[in-house]
Amino acid sequence: MTLNERLTAYSKLVEQQLLTYIQPEEDKGQGIIYEACRYSAMAGGKRLRPALVLEFCRVCGGDQQAALPFACALEMIHTYSLIHDDLPCMDDDDLRRGKPTNHKVYGEATAVLAGDGLLNLAFETASDPKNTAMVSAETQVQAIRALSRASGMDGMIGGQVLDMAAEETRISLDQLKTLQELKTGALIGVAAQLGCLIGHASEEQMAAALEYARCIGLAFQIQDDILDIEGDAETFGKSIGSDAENGKSTYPSLLGLERCHELVHELSQQAVDALTPFTDAGILPELALSLADRQK
């Protein structure tokens, strides 16, 4: 199976499962909040994080069906973060994945609640025994704790706080790396970690997976910064130039575009090199290299 074929298969699998989760058990008149959640959760996107969960589980010899609820929970958290990131009090973006952002369609208050709802539903999904019967209680607790930490104040939320504080302020390269390791890298890292936990990876494989995730997470963010300058808004799926407009320090602003292009390729190769503990790394090497040339 080619990279695109496997990613498409993962995307379909996750989207089908997400639709079953983002439904009310009973319609009590609150249907609009589920609609708002589905609007953003089903808006497409690369589904990179759930794909990493499923592929790392697979290459570790685990059962992907066991990993699927955790992959969906992670995608819910990622989607909630995008809804909140687009709000007027944060980045104030009008477009996401080529469509009006959630608050532009449903209003700011409903968008806030949709994000909150997806965050709660993520942990409901990951803790529901009906969804996780194939996973031991110990592994389930480890996975939930990892997911909580990566999305919390020492992970993604902490990164968002640093991101807001850095607006209109020149920060150092080390400060920017810390910001992005938390805001973007934490969820990519936990995707690899979840797949390895559920696939019963060795310590060596877990360490390799986390290094792979660190490299592609940084490459992904640098490429995002490049696309905010060089990208096409229709292809990229969101407004171009928002980083400069908001006065943000970015990798191109600190290192220059030429060095950023080089770094993306270097990091992608480092990610590939990290995978040696896996007998068959599946699509992971090609996936890392594909991030260096992505346009959206």
Number of helices: 15
Please indicate the percent range of residues in DSSP E strands (runs of 2 or more): under 5%
Mean pLDDT: 93
Give helix and strand order, one letter per element, not per position: HHHHEEHHHHHHHHHHH
| Domain module tally | 2
**What is the CATH C level class of the largest domain, in words?**
Mainly Alpha
Percent range of helical residues: 55-70%
CATH superfamily of the largest domain: Farnesyl Diphosphate Synthase
Strand order of the largest sheet: 1-2
CATH domain topology of the largest domain = Farnesyl Diphosphate Synthase
Structural class: mainly alpha
> What best-fitting shape do the alpha-carbon axes yield?
globular
Task: Specify Rg, calculated over alpha carbons.
Answer: 18 Å
Would you count the extended β strands for me?
2
Note the main sheet: 2 strands, antiparallel
- State the separation between the terminal residues, measured CA to CA: 23 Å
Structure description:
The chain has 296 residues and is mainly alpha-helical. It folds into 2 domains: 1-201, Farnesyl Diphosphate Synthase (Orthogonal Bundle); 203-296, no CATH class. 70% of the residues lie in helices and 1% in strands. It is built from 15 helices and 2 strands. The protein is globular. The chain starts with a helix and ends in a 5-residue tail after the last helix. The mean pLDDT is 93.
